[in-house]
Amino acid sequence: MADLHRFANPTRFLKLAGLIQPWALAVFLISATVGLYMAFFTAPADYQQGESARIMYVHVPASWMSMFCYTVMAVASAVSLIWKHPLADVSARATAPIGAAFTFLALATGSLWGKPMWGTWWVWDARLTSVLVLLFLHIGYMALQGAFDDRVRAAKASAILALVGFVNVPIIKFSVDWWNTLHQPASVVKMSGSSIHPSMLWPLLIMAIAFKAYYVWVLLVRMRQELVANKVRILRLKQVHGG
After folding, report:
1. 90: containing domain
2. Has residue 98 been placed in a domain?
3. CA distance 34 to 156
4. Would you tell me how many other CB atoms lie within 10 Å of the CB of residue 78?
5. How far apart are CA 129 and CA 62, in angstroms?
6. Of 52, 90, 126, 149, which is the most buried if we count CB atoms within 10 A?
7. What values do phi and psi take at 46, rounded to 5?
8. Which pTM was predicted?
């Protein structure tokens, strides 16, 4: 934990974030451009689903990121509760709206894909329902953050929700194995190796890199904004009490 506390100083963190931010943006722009080009122009149409399968190049990475973001929130919440790291709550708070956006994108693109494939926009199967619960957990976390005037109480309440709600992440991951759902089993990451042809796998993985880089970039932007806002708030309080 000593290494983590090295960056507890906001000035030190802001300097590091300033170095990483442009690189994350560059990786996002390059990988998104390459990934989208491959997804729409070089990857073949699926032999069963046809051209509509191309939506998976957005849907699947968005689904991965929805779970990744919530996992970050849960880990950061644990660090905040146990070790009182000053940046842990800031990172969890900054991640919540990003995770909610990725989760909504996963649900929206899934519905767009489900209509021609399943004949309906929505079904209450285990995977879809658990992802919808994940969206509500992201929204609930943000609601708790704004429900208290005391920021310490808000951080504690939302951190507890993030940790309790984390049980939903493995449910999403293994729902297709535990229950009979319309979703296909895992095909990218399997013990026996991926079952997706490289011509379709590569653009999918590149888009996953793009989404991850986008998350890092937006996370740092939001964390820097909040730290600056905290500095301004502290200065105003000092001026009020000093006056």
Report:
1. 20-41+53-186+201-242
2. yes
3. 41
4. 16
5. 16
6. 90
7. -70, 140
8. 0.88
